[in-house]
Amino acid sequence: MADLLRICALYPDVMNIYADRGNLLVLERRAGWRGIEVVITPAGFGDRVDPDAHDLFYLGGGQDRDQVLCAKDLVETKRDALHAAADRGALVLGICGGFQLLGHVYELGDDEIPGLGLVDLKTVREDGPRLIGNVAIEVELDGPSGRPRVLAGFENHGGRTHLGTGEQPLGRVLKGHGNDGRSGSEGVRRDGVIGTYLHGPLLPKNTWFADWLISRATGVELAPLDDRLEDAAHASARRAAGVSAVGSPN
């Protein structure tokens, strides 16, 4: 338990589509407002990472071209460290392209883009339209004993992600497409390894989830904040997706 949050931002200048870097800003501000020092360390191409030096590893989304470049570097210079970090309980959060790279492979036409293999999933660029639009999902981060919460955001992905038999989705789709447009599942969660397609960016629209990440990463019980503006942003994102009361789509 420490009043320090150490974040490793993977390829922050490249994997930053839909302002995903705003997620880091939200973590920094909301931790700082509680007196928790935040250290953000960027890790780019060729940089090796220390699995014990960070509490949260963050990988945002990017264009296919950038994702291919990052995938190669991730496998060559960072995969073993990220596995070690996940094994000791560190958080690993992947958004869209970052989510896809948490799995084994991204089949992009005739190319197979290798992933980190932190979770059992694969993504395939199938025929058909891109899965685009506002989305809301119901999650139970604290298990059956916790009350369901809603994450709202925006999705835009051509790949269809398929989870392995033993993997659990992050949440249940209330409105939107989710992982593949058919299963009703969105994202993935294996202990502290979390992936989702929700952009927008995700955390400014769902500050309760940012607080959950901070508390989980630091072990600190967070004091409440005046979240009237943040709650209004969350409500707006839910309305855009067509969801009002928890678990009840309009």
CATH class: Alpha Beta
| Sheet/helix structural class | alpha/beta
Distance between the termini: 41 Å
- Specify the CATH architecture: 3-Layer(aba) Sandwich
Tell the overall outline. globular
- Determine the fraction of residues in helical runs and give it as a percent range: 25-40%
Radius of gyration equals 17 Å
Number of helices: 6
Instruction: Tell me the major beta sheet.
Output: 6 strands, mixed
Per DSSP E runs of 2 or more residues, the count of β-strands stands at 14
CATH domain topology: Rossmann fold
Overall average residue pLDDT: 93
Strand content: 25-35%
Spatially, the strands of the biggest sheet line up as 2-1-3-4-14-13
Task: Describe the structure using short key phrases.
about 30% helix, 4-stranded mixed beta sheet, 6-stranded mixed beta sheet, alpha/beta, Rossmann fold, 14 strands, about 250 residues
Structure notes:
This protein has a single domain (4-241), classed as Rossmann fold. It has 250 residues and is α/β, with parallel strands linked by helices. The chain has six helices and 14 strands. The longest helix has 24 residues, at 64-87. Helix 1 (22-32) packs across helix 5. Strands 2-1-3-4-14-13 form a six-stranded mixed sheet, with helices on both faces. The chain has a four-stranded mixed sheet with strand order 6-5-7-10, with helices on one face. It is 28% helix and 29% strand. The chain is globular and about 50 Å long. Strand 13 (188-190) and strand 14 (193-196) form a beta hairpin. It has helices at residues 22-32, 64-87, 97-100, 202-205, 207-218, 228-241, and strands at residues 4-10, 37-43, 56-59, 91-95, 105-108, 111-114, 121-125, 131-139, 149-157, 159-163, 171-175, 185-186, 188-190, 193-196. Residues 246-250 have low confidence and may be disordered.
